[in-house]
Amino acid sequence: MARRRRKPLPQGAFEAEIRDLTHEGRGVAEVRGKTVFIDGALPGERVRFEYTAVRRQHDEGRTVEVLDAAPDRVEPRCPHFGLCGGCSLQHLAPEAQIRWKQKAMLDALRQIGGVEPETVAEPLTGPVWGYRHKARIGAKLVHKKGRVLVGFRERGGRFIADLGRCEVLVPQVGEHLVELAETIGRMSTPDRIPQIEIAAGDETTVLVFRHLEPLTESDRAALRALGERLGCAIALQPGGPGSIHPLWPEQQSLWYAHPAFGVRVAFAPSDFIQVNPEINRAMVVQALNWLQVESEHQVLDLFCGLGNFTLPLARKAHRGRVTGVEGEAGMVRRARMNAEANGIGNTEYAVANLMEPEPDASWLQRDYDRILLDPPRSGAREIIPLVAGRAPRIVYVSCHPGTLARDAGLLVREHGYRLVRAGVMDMFPHTAHVESMALFVKD
Fold first, then answer.
1. Among all residues, which ones are annotated catalytic?
2. Do 14-73 and 99-127+274-441 have matching folds?
3. Nearest to 394 by CA among 103, 404, 362
4. Which residues are 56's β-sheet partners?
């Protein structure tokens, strides 16, 4: 089959009036009767832009000059903004970012779910720089530059951005990207180390170096010396996630605390955790406040992971029981270990694929006083029909406004719940990610 030819790009710079933002944070304009999504443009602005793609339904472009700036436009803190794909909204003031995210959530609830919250909660906000404690960054030996690059990928591209530092990564790492790159560049096979996993707990930061060839003793010494200089533990990953093992020091302990509940959550470098610890702690407090958990309650925590919500729930329902359900057996194993390490004896766990739930599962044969849902981007559509009605109060934690809206519509229209409250959480400042929480009550 012959390849479809790409349409030629209009040449030169064009002017546009920006009327909105897409869910990816690009300006929306109408140019010559066709919608154009423009990187680096904000609503209310007049910009000069150049085309980057011509498509059937819309075109794409990037801003080359702002002719009339929006009041909320700010100077990006990072000199790599616009090149690096790690952030898309640094040119928008943080308080305006959160307003836009709230609007995105409310628009999705109305347009997709056909529902509106009775109350819009105040946004949860926190630090907007140096907040990211979990990330995976690329490493690449670029022969044309004669050196290794370390960082996120370029916006809209597959190449590693040439970064000197990163303002959103935990500073212990983000301020030292050049040193990371130079260390890899001096190793025996600098072209065979494709990525670095960053995992920062409350006391320890671990850097996991993926390597496709065995390391020499000199390589290992260089990484140990790097860890000592940065104050980071170093781990190696010769294969899949299960191959991760410490290099220096031999004993490595990653954990974060929920001080309001007196618990610690231990995790492995490759485990999923929330990237923003301050927002995560505030999120858990808010979820439990909205649920109104009492000491004798029976609580169901779906997509429980390592126990991020399960352990605090168990502290509140200390004379009841919390059932955590998660699809990955390794995470459930560590959730059990976390409960034991915290001296919590009123939790139980089940391994279950919640995208293809089994209706006869034992944990689905009981009613609960409270349910917490914390699904991935795909949402909780498959499990909702099996748990709706089993508890009068449900809190739904969402990382995608579209699937939250879809599932909210199901809970309200098909299962008789009221959408009592919804609000956004600034888990990923300077990005277009919209994290939110919603409370559903059945009277």
1. 399
2. no
3. 404
4. none
Superfamily of domain 14-73: Nucleic acid-binding proteins (2.40.50.140)
Cα distance between residue 411 and residue 117, in whole Å: 13
Q: Can you read off the two tokens belonging to residue 364?
A: 């689905």
Q: How many CA atoms lie within 13 A of 212 on its CB side?
A: 9
Per the structure block, which two tokens stand in for 63? 């801003």
Signed CA dihedral, 77, 82, 88, 92: sign only? positive
Tokens at residue 263, please? 């618990």
Q: At 312, which helix (H) or strand (E)?
A: helix 310-316
pLDDT tens, 170-221? Answer: 999 999 999 999 999 999 999 999 999 999 999 999 999 999 999 999 999 9
Q: Which CATH class is domain 134-200+205-248?
A: mainly beta
Q: For 99-127+274-441, which CATH superfamily applies?
A: Vaccinia Virus protein VP39 (3.40.50.150)
Decide: 353 and 345 in contact? Cβ < 8 Å. no
What does the block give as tokens for 72?
């909320």
d(CA 351, CA 302): 10
* pLDDT tens profile 360-382: 999 999 999 999 999 999 999 99
What does pTM read for this prediction?
Answer: 0.94
| Domain positions in the chain | 14-73, 99-127+274-441, 134-200+205-248
Alpha helices, H only, 309-359? 310-316, 329-341
